Amino acid sequence: MAMKPSDSRWLDWINVVLLVLAGMIVMTPTAWMILSSFKPSYEVIAFPPKLVFTPVIENYVTLSKQTPFLSYGINSLIVTFGSTVFGLLLGAPAAFVASWTRITWPAVVALMARMAPGTLFLLPWYVMFRQVDMIGSYWALILTHAVITLPIVIWVLLPYFDNIPRSIFEAAQVDGCSPFRIFRRIALPLVSSGLAVSAILAFVFSWNFFLFSLVLSNSQTKTLIAASFNFIGEGSTNWGGLMAAATIIALPPLILAAIVQRWLISGLTLGAVKG
Amino acid sequence: MASITIRNLVKNYGGVTVIPGLDLEIADEEFIVLVGPSGCGKSTLLRVLAGLEAIDGGELMIGDRRVNEVPAAKRDIAMVFQDYALYPHMTVRQNMAFALEMRGAESAEIASKIEEAARLLDIQPYLDRRPKALSGGQRQRVAMGRAIVRDPQVFLFDEPLSNLDAKLRGQVRAEIKMLSKKLKTTMVFVTHDQIEAMTMADRIVVMKAGVIQQVGTPEQVYENPANLFVASFIGSPSMNFLPVDIQADGLRLADGSLLPESLIARPSGDHGKLTLGIRPEHFELVQEGQGLAADIELVEPLGSDTLVHVSAAGQEVIVRVSPDLRPKAGQRIWLSPAAGKAHLFDPETEIRIDGTGKAD
């Protein structure tokens, strides 16, 4: 049945209200975190909360003076960058082969591994890395974070590869290309936007992952997110410092997401609209 | 340039046999058209020739070389795909250069081959464009150019005209035919369009359910179809089929009318009921009371000639007549097959029967 214009207008309004509600639910904690990072610690947990206050930067000053935040940041970058590259190096060929052969069960296994709780992997890894004396090394963190990045890369890239007409690969075969050359010369350039989307998502998920770094890093390799845990003490918690740390930690993924949001959305919906 | 020999070729998909054992000889420099309805195995056969599908049985030779286990990349064949399959991220020039680069050709050689092919196909102005900036016809030309620069032993075409509009299709059809004469390379062309098959082929291979029904020149296939399937598939509109009873005084049709023996070579032997096949253009209008009474139901003027749908001998028959006749719906006309142009088929085996009473 055809929809009347007035019905359509109501639906538009309902959509707007739902989107605003969803936006508030998502953004309120972020706004709270950023605002609280500019409040003195005692004001962070004051009730009722103060929306109008005099901003202070003491939390950021304390953070920079009391903790080697920059080196934690570098550690985070090394681990995240390493695991993202590792995920792309393994995940892109894996997704291509899964698409080419139409055998997707390895991709499903990879996704199940991603969905399993991190603690499932943590204990065996801890034992294994201790036996080879790798606890506290960057490699241990990069390899374990690949459990986060690899399934993301595979699952983002799979519909991109599926979307390439098969005849293009076949034309390349007839043109004398080996499967590896088809992957490198034909398939990869055609999924470049998918590579960017998967790299960004892998980066963000790895950057935000807390558990492996908490257990497998040492004071030299601790990542930002694990270091922020230091602000939670047994007797008291430095809420202002914690909020300032959380704000700094959240900035790279937020900035990345803002820069590439249009790309990200089209990339994420590619599988859904595949004809 | 090479001949192709296919001996007892078998192709299965899972548990389904799509080509149950096929034999075909294609001569060097020959233009062969594989034609048949959807699912007849013609594209599968082409893909097997290309090396894109594995062979489950039999032998495939290109020239003197057995290529059963040779991958597509090493068969020295070029293929034009139905959707052209141009590399979207490369320019026309890069598309055409790609196969030569894979072969390790010198850049001067690549440039000269591209120039030569571009001139032949009249695509010089588009060499630095990407495929998405080209029309369907231009893409089609580029796809051919990509094949030509390789100077392959065999060209394969997988329904390359089906995405073009009718006018362009006719034009490109003629161009491909002329190109085949210039290049003097073995060409295998797949289509479901019998007009393409008739106009382009040196020889036509008509297929059904993975089995070759007939191999012959367009004239042979049209004039002497091997069986009911070929007779109905080749020609548009299709051949008319009427059940007849062989009697001592001639061929009796379902409505009781009698066709004189002189018009059709009477088959020897005891045949009884047969199927009479007459092409729409092989009917002649005869005087009232002679031949077959036909009531006009629909008239389709095509300009150059007119198709008349009539009800005759209890079924619909299509007749092609001169537009000057100006037939009208509701009118009764009298038809007779042109002498020597009608065919008889065995309704059980579906094979055409010649005057000796044997299948051709």
Characterization of the model:
The complex is a heterodimer of chains A (275) and B (360). Chain A has a single domain, classed as MetI-like fold. In chain A, helix 3 packs across helix 13 (239-259) and helix 4 packs parallel to helix 7. Chain A has helices spanning 5-36, 41-44, 58-66, 69-101, 105-115, 118-131, 138-163, 166-174, 179-190, 192-208, 211-216, 224-227, 239-259, 261-268, 270-273. Chain A is built from 15 helices and no strands. Chain B is an alpha+beta fold and 360 residues long. Chain B has two domains: 4-228, 3-Layer(aba) Sandwich (Rossmann fold); 237-353, OB fold (Dihydrolipoamide Acetyltransferase, E2P), CATH 2.40.50. Chain B is 24% helix and 33% strand. Chain B has helices at 42-50, 92-103, 107-121, 136-148, 166-183, 194-200, 218-223, 228-233; strands at 4-13, 16-26, 31-35, 57-62, 65-66, 77-80, 154-158, 186-191, 203-208, 211-216, 240-247, 250-253, 258-259, 273-278, 283-285, 292-301, 306-312, 315-321, 332-337, 343-345, 352-353. Chain B has a six-stranded mixed β-sheet with strand order 6-7-8-3-9-10, sandwiched between helices. In chain B, strands 13-12-11-14-20-21 form a six-stranded antiparallel β-sheet. Chain B starts with a strand and ends in a 7-residue tail after the last strand. At the A-B interface, helix 8 and helix 9 of A face strand 6 and helix 2 of B.
Distance between the termini of chain B: 33 Å
- The CATH class name of the largest domain in chain B reads Alpha Beta
Helix/strand/pairing category of chain B: alpha+beta
Q: What pattern of helices and strands is seen along the backbone of chain B?
A: EEEHEEEHHHEHEHEEHHEEEEEEEEEEE
What is the name of the CATH architecture of chain A?
Answer: Orthogonal Bundle
- Oligomer classification: heterodimer
Unreliable sequence segments of chain B: none
Protein name (chain B): sn-glycerol-3-phosphate ABC transporter ATP-binding protein UgpC
GO molecular function, one term (chain B): ATP hydrolysis activity
Pfam families (chain B): ABC_tran, TOBE_2
InterPro entries (chain B): AAA+_ATPase, ABC_transporter-like_ATP-bd, ABC_transporter-like_CS, ABC_transpr_MalK-like, ABC_transpr_MalK/UgpC-like, Mo/tungstate-bd_C_term_dom, NA-bd_OB-fold, P-loop_NTPase
